[in-house]
TrEMBL record:
Claim: Repeat is one of the keywords in the record: yes
Organism annotation: Salix brachista
Official protein name in the record: Gnk2-homologous domain-containing protein
Pfam families attached to this UniProt entry: Stress-antifung (PF01657)
Key word Signal present: yes
Length: 303
């Protein structure tokens, strides 16, 4: 009897663990300058709702490579919107993130005409202006609050060079495919993780240009910082001293790069093999899952 009770408790623990396996996306930043707002029940609000539901429903499609852009309504109340999921996330994580974002953005940016919201897993934005045209696209910055303490100048250089190198790789993907690349490099006993991504519809030169623009802005946010993000509508770059993407999934999402022998700038930074190192939080989760399952098996064997 006791062990039955025990196993019931464990069963509920297990289902809890399964539920938390689809966690909310991890919110990082947003930009919704409250200089323009729309009024309740306006045409703009109706169009925005239409747009958000269109983004949400289209995120369930399988052949979109994590990207969708759409507009709703007519000038002057037209709303433009898009989402872009990180290149290595699965369709279900992407869908989950976009769904969450369409609701979250209305809470974090209430009544705002223009908004961009950014999570680890995806980005969602909308505007009354067509941000796909460069004139309305200005970068959004986000950075790790910590600084590197050893050779910050060399670190900046390593970041910029690694990001530039993978930009070429990401940009060369055929139009419509994921334009995405990640790379690790050694820095002072630590591992630098870098990522670049363009929307799949960009041409190779446009993608390369967009990424070069983003890299050139690193000084505006991220000088000597342990991590940083530069976000344009059409492309984004990110680096951290921890693995913020799933390297295994990244390898599967885009063709593996040809192995290159990298000789880094002046001192010791150099390429390391991109190796699937499991993300900490999820690793915690899966170990505890396995743990509970293991205990359950023991309990049932003893019944
Ligand atoms: C924007 O937000 C700031 C701070 O929350 C507030 O003081 C200001 O009144 C807001 N402006 C508008 C136009 O809502
Ligand atoms: C948004 O608009 C509604 C209706 O006009 C209003 O009640 C609410 O206070 C507004 N929220 C913000 C944050 O301005
Ligand atoms: C918006 O429309 C709803 C339902 O039609 C109504 O209850 C509400 O009072 C309206 N709000 C404003 C600010 O007009
Ligand atoms: C996708 O968006 C289009 C509008 O762009 C809409 O007509 C369609 O219903 C949406 N949903 C799906 C699943 O395609
Ligand atoms: C999506 O963006 C492209 C520009 O790359 C544009 O030509 C197209 O019209 C956009 N689609 C919608 C539905 O706005
Ligand atoms: C990383 O991706 C691989 C391949 O898609 C997957 O099997 C693995 O579970 C993922 N790891 C985490 C921590 O999500
Ligand atoms: C980047 O690529 C250049 C040329 O291919 C190479 O010389 C350099 O070592 C590479 N650096 C890094 C950090 O990947
Ligand atoms: C869980 O992961 C966090 C980092 O996300 C780490 O600091 C912590 O030690 C881990 N806990 C366990 C029990 O592995």
């Amino acid at each position: 009897m006791d062990s039955l009770k025990f196993s019931t408790i464990l069963l509920s623990l297990l289902s809890l663990a399964i539920i938390t396996q689809a966690p909310d996306p991890k919110y990082l930043t947003r930009l919704c300058p409250n200089t323009t707002t729309f009024t309740s029940n306006s045409t703009y609000q109706a169009n925005l709702n239409l747009l958000l539901s269109s983004l949400s429903s289209n995120s369930t499609r399988n052949n979109i490579n994590g990207f969708y852009n759409v507009s709703a309504g007519k000038d002057p109340d037209e709303v433009y919107g898009m989402f872009l999921c990180r290149g290595d996330v699965s369709n279900s994580v992407c869908r989950n993130c976009v769904n969450f974002a369409t609701k979250d953005v209305l809470e974090k940016c209430p009544n705002e005409t223009v908004a961009t919201i950014w999570y680890d897993e995806c980005e969602l934005r909308y505007s009354n202006r067509n941000f796909f045209s460069a004139e309305y696209d200005s970068p959004i910055f986000f950075s790790n609050r910590y600084y590197v303490t050893v050779e910050p100048e060399r670190f900046n250089q390593l970041v910029a060079i690694t990001l530039s190198n993978i930009s070429t790789r990401a940009a060369s993907a055929p139009s419509g495919d994921k334009k995405f690349a990640v790379q690790q490099a050694n820095y002072n006993m630590q591992i630098l993780h870098t990522l670049v991504q363009c929307t799949p519809d960009l041409s190779t030169p446009d993608c390369r240009r967009c990424l070069a623009g983003a890299i050139s802005k690193l000084g505006n946010c991220c000088d000597g910082k342990q991590g940083g993000i530069v976000i344009f509508a059409r492309c984004n770059i990110r680096y951290e001293l921890y693995e913020f993407y799933n390297a295994t999934a990244a390898d599967e999402a885009v063709p593996a790069p040809p192995p290159v022998a990298l000789s880094p700038p002046p001192a010791s930074g150099s390429e390391t093999r991109r190796k699937g190192k499991v993300d900490n939080a999820l690793f915690n989760l899966s170990t505890s899952c396995i743990h509970i399952q293991f205990i359950l098996t023991l309990v049932f064997r003893n019944l």
